[in-house]
Amino acid sequence: MVIVALVFAGLAALLHVYIFTMESLTWTSSRTRKAFGTTAEEAETTKLMALNQGFYNLFLAIVGIVGIVAIALGHTGIGAALVLAGVGSMLAAAAVLLASAPDKARAAVTQGAFPLVAVVLLVIALV
Known about the structure:
Transmembrane segments: 54-73, 80-101, 107-126
Distance between the termini: 11 Å
Largest sheet: none
Number of helices: 6
Shape: elongated
Radius of gyration: 15 Å
Protein name: Epimerase
Organism: Mycolicibacterium aromaticivorans JS19b1 = JCM 16368
Number of domains: 1
Keywords: Membrane, Transmembrane, Transmembrane helix
Pfam families: DUF1304
Strand content: under 5%
Structural class: mainly alpha
């Protein structure tokens, strides 16, 4: 069960690295604007905010990845704490998105599905 939880945590981390790429590196591109439903003007205006937000996503992914590596190396306690901190924060962010912008439910579910499964399976495996 731990391995399956870590696979989902890894998928969540990869998704958040992708989100980082869109928010911090390609925010004003037409493809990213289409994905986020923004106009060229909105993207330009919010570019610095998106850059910062993208790095939050990257840092959450890094925390999760470091936790996965720690568990793989036999440091279950610290690894689990890091995985739960990383993917738990991803899940919380998805919940905030859903609560604050119900019209973004699809994005919130996309952002939160892998972390939710990872948290549930990891907690079950550790109990």
